[in-house]
Structures are given as structure tokens and as C-alpha cells.
Design goal:
It is built from two helices and nine strands. By secondary structure, the protein is mostly beta strands. The strands form three sheets. A four-stranded mixed sheet has the order 1-4-6-5, covered by helices on one side. The radius of gyration is 15 Å and the shape is globular.
């Protein structure tokens, strides 16, 4: 895979909005995610029942425990379908971090590259 990877991150302050609905369905955010090879969103305020899918991407999600009746925090990492075969999820115990590995054979690098998306 020649060329530089496009990597981005956005704090979306919750994936749902009273007037806007699911922010991941908004053109601006959806386009921003699909323009990048890897794109992290933080503060998803999502849980296991939330729809965080984006059609052209594979994604990894971590949810935070609820505080009262609300979901707080949460992160998701989207991998564009162009590179999805070269990216692996790296399990870890930290609910605030998603790690992935970019495979050296796929990306033609000397070593694997590890990339983390963190919410603090």
C-alpha cells in the first residue's frame, strides 16, 4: 500500500443528538470518517445497543460503564475498507484505549505499526 495514511480523530460529544439524531448518519461526519484510512471518534456515549456502523468501514468499539442512566465516554476506531485487511484489533483491558496493529507485510514496512486511540 503506497503513500501516506490519512488518520484523524473527532470528539463527537455523544453519537445521538435530540434534533440531529445519530451523528454518524450526518454527511459531514460520515464523509470525514470515509475520507480517512483510520479515524477515531471519542465520547461516543454509546452502549452495546447503539448503531455505530458506517457502511464503508470496519470498526472497533469500546464502551464505558454507565453513570446513573447515562452512557459516558466510549471510543470507536474506523478502518477504511481500502486497508481493512492489513489492520488487526489488539485486545487490552483498558476501557479507554483501542489498539490496532498495522501489518508490516500489508503496508510494506520493516516492522508492524501499533496505533492507539485513547479517551481520557
Amino acid at each position: 500500500m503506497p503513500g501516506a495514511l490519512q488518520i484523524g480523530v473527532w470528539n463527537i460529544h455523544g453519537h445521538k443528538h435530540k434534533e440531529l439524531g445519530n451523528k454518524l448518519e450526518l454527511n459531514e461526519l460520515n464523509t470525514m470518517i470515509r475520507k480517512h484510512d483510520l479515524f477515531g471518534i471519542v465520547e461516543t456515549h454509546a452502549d452495546e445497543s447503539s448503531d455505530l456502523n458506517i457502511e464503508s468501514c470496519r470498526h472497533f468499539v469500546k464502551y464505558r460503564n454507565k453513570s446513573g442512566n447515562r452512557n459516558y465516554g466510549g471510543i470507536a476506531l474506523y478502518i477504511n475498507k481500502r486497508i481493512k485487511d492489513g489492520v488487526s484489533y489488539m485486545p487490552n483491558q483498558n476501557q479507554n484505549v483501542i489498539w490496532c496493529k498495522l501489518n508490516k507485510e500489508h503496508f510494506h514496512t520493516e516492522k508492524d505499526i501499533y496505533l492507539g486511540t485513547q479517551f481520557t
